[in-house]
Amino acid sequence: MRYPGKEGIENYVSLLKRLLNVTDPSSFLETVAEARDELVGMHQKVEPVMSFFGSVQVEIFRRLSMEVGDFRRNIQFLSEDARSDVVRIEEIFSLDEPYSQIKDLTQLESRIKASLEESLLNLKQELHEKLISAMEDIERELASYDGLSDEFKRLVMKPFDDIKRDIATSDDCVFVKLQSTRINDLCGSAYEKIKRQVRIIKEIDATPVVIQGTALFRTKKNIETEDDLDEYLENLRAAMRTILNEKNKIKVL
């Protein structure tokens, strides 16, 4: 962090060191006399700097210097006035002697934080509504299939509960905004999990009906004509179609 007046302090310290390096008393007094105007001028320049470090201004300056990066990162969420306040803070930091204007930093900081807080609340509300809608869609999808266990349903819904918690506890507009993409990704993943699980259940349930013996193929009367044959085959087709619709697979032994 670059504090204001650093160069002036360094020049002043350098001059004092040069004077203190003169060990002969008479030479020291002569050197001080020669450097009197320079010494007085430098002291006048660094006096505001020393006052700065001895006041509450240094803490304000330190705090804002750490916060301004976050303000700039969140600039898209600020009102026009708050954006101007960020620019004003950066202008004050760029001054060589900002001492008379450091008092303005607290008010600028307050307005920026108020704007960020308003944007954060709006973002949280927007994302909460999107999340609830997505969760309701997934819950309806889960309810539309038989055979899905409660444990599987909890597994699918847990990531959405995690996002809900993250949104509620975050104080970062950028992070909350990014949860919109996270919700979209989770929805896609949830639908894929459901489809995969439904497919697994169908494969388990699709054990073929084993037809043993000749009962299904027996005729009630002799087949003597082509019409008799057509009637027999039609009845057999109907019986096997019923089995196929119920169990999907038929195996004849």
UniProtKB/TrEMBL annotation:
InterPro entries: BREX_BrxC_helical (IPR058037). Residues 222-249 form a coiled coil. Residues 2-73 form the Probable ATP-binding protein BrxC alpha-helical domain. This is Probable ATP-binding protein BrxC alpha-helical domain-containing protein. Keywords: Coiled coil.
